[in-house]
Design a protein that fits this description.
The protein has about 260 residues and is α+β, with helices and mostly antiparallel strands. It has 10 helices and 10 strands. The chain folds into 2 domains: about 160 residues, no CATH class; about 60 residues, no CATH class. About 40% of the residues lie in helices and about 15% in strands. A hairpin with an 8-residue loop joins strand 4 and strand 5. It binds iron/sulfur cluster (SF4) (2 copies). One iron/sulfur cluster binds next to loops.
């Protein structure tokens, strides 16, 4: 079985299932409150970016420009988007305030899931996905001294992780395909297409509605309306489109 491992976290401890227990609590009551919002490399997935820029009410291009750095050299060959930390020696996140995270309801998946990390594996032919979790213990983090006990599944629910995992797994499917097709070389045009589809909602929508796209591809009319009106549907469709555009898979029907 060919597999891909996704790790959103900083280190791998013993494997945990959704029914395993751990002790942790975080909030203004802990002495290290917001310490973890600095001196970190914070990867933003396409869904993270979508949630954050909608919360701020700004365009994808403005969010990318103001709050992120694009990392071009990556192990999987696709660019990654990182949060741009401030220039102080503490390298603080632009959204951290003395009273906590100013974008809390839309904070990135990596901020939600801590102190857990998640690894997922997928079968390339059957799209079967398995997952496990693990503890990520940062030395400065005192949340582990707190008595509150959680099941992994309770923590994921409390932190609203399921939607983040679902969207992030769609991105992972693109990485898996690239790894599987070792002989494939991505051109500059492929990379631009990937960045647009994943990280720039407005440009991707413009590409669909203001080009020959809908004449060329047979897209269900209900889906067309959803793509016009719903940014999350558009992102989900972006991953389908990339399977066609990058790997030539029949993920989208051509009009005959
Ligand atoms: S370091 Fe740990 S306990 Fe402290 S604020 Fe961050 S996550 Fe919470
Ligand atoms: S997004 Fe919020 S929780 Fe995440 S690092 Fe920034 S301030 Fe902290």
């Amino acid at each position: 079985m060919e597999a891909n491992e996704q790790a959103i976290g900083m280190g791998i401890g013993p494997k945990l299932s959704r029914d395993d227990l751990f002790r942790f609590s975080c909030g203004p009551h802990v002495p290290c409150f917001t310490e973890c919002c600095g001196k970190l490399e914070l990867l933003l997935t396409p869904y993270d970016l979508l949630r954050l820029r909608k919360r701020l009410g700004i365009s994808s291009a403005d969010f990318l420009d103001k709050y992120t750095i694009m990392k071009l050299k990556t192990s999987h060959g696709f660019p990654e988007v990182m949060m741009k930390m401030d220039s102080s020696t503490e390298k603080r996140c632009p959204f951290v305030q003395p009273n906590g995270c100013s974008v809390y309801e839309d904070r990135p998946g990596a901020c939600r899931i801590y102190p857990l990390g998640r690894a997922s594996t997928s079968h390339p032919m059957e799209e079967i996905r398995k997952e496990f979790y693990f503890m990520v213990k940062e030395d400065h983090c005192q949340g582990f001294r707190e008595p509150h006990e959680w099941k992994v599944r309770e923590w994921l629910e409390d932190q609203g992780m399921d939607e983040y995992n679902r969207l992030n797994d769609l991105l992972m499917e693109i990485y898996v395909r690239k790894a599987r097709l070792r002989q494939i070389t991505l051109t500059g045009q492929h990379i631009q297409m990937f960045v647009m589809a994943c990280y720039n909602t407005e440009r991707f929508r413009d590409f669909i509605f203001n080009s020959a796209f809908l004449n060329k591809f047979d897209i269900d009319s209900d889906l067309v309306e959803e793509l016009r009106n719903c940014d999350q549907k558009l992102l989900e469709f972006a991953f389908v489109w990339l399977k066609f555009a990058l790997f030539g898979e029949p993920a989208i029907r051509l009009r005959t």
